[in-house]
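During the reporting period the student researcher (J.K.) took over the structure-prediction task from the postdoctoral fellow and processed the backlog of single-chain submissions. One of the processed entries is reproduced below for the supervisory committee.
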Amino acid sequence: MSHITNPLATVEQLYSRSTLNALPQDLQDVIFLSMQSLTQAAGLLLRLPQSVTAQANVVLARYWVTISWPFIDEFSDISAASLFLVAKLSSHPTTPRDLCNVYAYLLSPLSPLFRPSAADPPSTTPDKTLYYLSEPGYSEAHARILALESRVLCALSFDTHVALPHGLAVTYLKALDFLGVSPPAPLAQRVVGYLNTALLSPQLLYLTHQPSALAVAAIYNAAKDLGAKMPECAWWEVFDVDREELGFLVVGMRSVEGAVRAGREKDISAELHEGNMITRAGIETEMRKRGMVLGNGVNTSGSSENAAPLTEEDMLMRSLDERADQMDS
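J.K. obtained the following structure tokens:
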């Protein structure tokens, strides 16, 4: 069974990420969404199979829960290293030069990936110098990605196994006789769409639930959207998924669209990125505006440059105060 199951994030990892991290939760969500979206876009431009890109998203998410702010790497480099690592281990490896060129384009002002408005279309005669990588620039980017690749492997204890729910979803659809109806394409496409969208979930659904549960939830949502007739019995129990887990995943998958929309609006309004991607400098600037303290103990408001580092208890109390303020507002 190990080939169709994944190592899941521990409660301690999720708790530390959500409460003890020096970054507010809304900024964490914006960073995670930006990195995952960038990885998906890079996979498309590199013509990698979705299975490879999705595995890179999961590896990136696993690395995400093992580290805390302040990051020592740019978020785009973390995305590139995860995609390069997973592609190298697959039957569709990509060259470092292709990878660096694609990320140079996606991070350039000409990229439509994080464009704030449709009223700002890319130029019809793009200036290639805006995303051209010189030989020194390529060497520097390549060195950063290789160094970060080793750190990702160490953080994951060299466990890069990722079981995706897409294949299981097709098997479950066959078992439910959905692929025998005509036409089966809309339902299957909707299921795959839910599974791919769940990769962007700030709830880290791929790290908290096994592929079988994700596949069942995607089928449930797709069947409900298209009005497909489901068995009247508790059919999900046949696939070893209980009602409570199914209910959580159904709601979680349906909430991704709203979370993505909110994250995009936050990303644009806060001006967190330089060029076309969110950056560490942008996050630090936003934290200074909020008068918050970085994880290294430096007060970003400038009022106490020699402040002592925050303890875990201090960070927990700060997080609780922030949530209380949000509830009051």
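The committee noted the following: Residues 295-312 have pLDDT under 50 and may be disordered.
J.K. will present the remaining backlog at the next meeting.
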